[in-house]
Queue: 4 jobs
Job 1
Amino acid sequence: MSEIIVEVISENVKEKVHSEVVKLIENVIKELELNNVKIVEKSSTDGSVTLKYGIVPSPSIAINGVLMIIGEKPTKKEIKDLILRATLNI
């Protein structure tokens, strides 16, 4: 099974909302018992992020290089649905 890359993009990776989103994703991964999902934390001011996605509001989430959540804190159900959908596309 191929690896699923979940990028959590925020202006500041140390902000509370960013940490909450990462924790939520970790919980969903654990709940789904997936071992092929990698979380990558990125700053929206990072040059590689702006080159790839443009300017994105915080927090945003990309899965396998596609922005899925832009500028809002997702619910657990949204994260679960997106990750499950990504497993079908591998």
Note: The chain has a mean pLDDT of 94.
Job 2
Amino acid sequence: MQIVQIIAPVEKSISLVDAKGFLRVLESDDDVVIQNIIDAVEEHTQNVLNRQLEIATYELYTDDFIFKLPKNPIVSVDKIEYMDESGAYVVLDSTTYYLYEKNGIGFISYSEIPLIKEYKKAVKITFVAGYETVPKPIKSYMRVKIANYYENREEYVIGVSSTEVANGFIDNLIKPYRVRP
């Protein structure tokens, strides 16, 4: 299975202005550092949750028809293509499948599955995933992570513990949004 992002999100879940406001940083000297931390925390959060935060479009290549989609929440399935015996991609009729959600995970149900060529990229699913509005608990989690990494970005901090305050509370903010692989 291979997944490729073909249209990136238009904006970040946490903007530079938002992060700087939370950090109480007024000057622009550390803008590049803060933006790098934002990017790292967003990627980390998406990996921990196994979710796409901002809306993006993906192409998923697999050797067979899958039922469970790897990125959530699912907004839509734009098309499903399969490789016929001659090796050409054919668009699957959209009336032969439907998208549904169960426990925050997107699934595809097929009424009929055509024969496909045996090939590692025999099926291509183009879909859109992400939140229309990223939930506030996820954003709060990200802001605290950004602040922690910004304040403790040196390799060693003498005489200070880098343990987050109320670590259990912060981690529990995102627990309901986590999708188990």
Note: The chain has two domains: 14-53+133-177, 56-129.
Job 3
Amino acid sequence: MHPETGLGVDISQGGIGLITECLLEEGNLLKLYFPVAETKTNLPVYAQVMWAKPANGKFRAGLSFWDKPAWRKSQR
């Protein structure tokens, strides 16, 4: 596991599109960091890869935001 960078596009309440240099695997759970300029920190957000495909020499993926506390409860 190593950090990668990506460009977020088409963000909505339920998810985000991501353009990356590497192909993401469908089903993987990612920890994204959104910069918060006012506090100069990064907000961690979990998202699951719903689909991924090549796009213009890079890769594009559709991610669904993941509610980690709800996931933990379902694992009991």
Note: The first strand starts at residue 6 and ends at 9.
Job 4
Amino acid sequence: MKSNLSHHYLILFTLILTTVSQSYAQKLPDELLSWKGTWFTIQKQDTLFEQWNIDADGNMRGESWTIKANKDSIHSEYIRLYTKDQTVIYEPLVKAQHGNKPISFHMMLQTASYWIFYNEENDFPKFITYKRISKDQLKAIISNSDNPDSTNSIEFNYKLYPR
């Protein structure tokens, strides 16, 4: 009887510990979760898309692709946005780059509408910047400088795709 009671206490303790640890799980800021949706921009004659969804763990999953002027569709990357050790990580996986493994960029600056992710070891880009312009406008900039207005940057001015 005594060992049976101890077993019940162990199960109860494990359930409480699991519940408490899940309630303290690191979550992405609401401002990042507001990226949810499909975004598009037109560059030259191509249309670029970036689509963000929230997964069951409260992380963001994204993917990007391009529809060329000739209607060919080219998938660019998969992206994961999550927290680890109280740091927000932006992790793109680009086909045929880095041995088909994701690269981690750590958030180095965050405001209510501005996020900069950094990876010093990546050849290009070293910085990935997102700026929320309005409810339906999002700007993404990739560069090797912490100054997103520098000449060695590529800018994507996304609009929320109408449903």
Note: The longest strand covers residues 73-84.
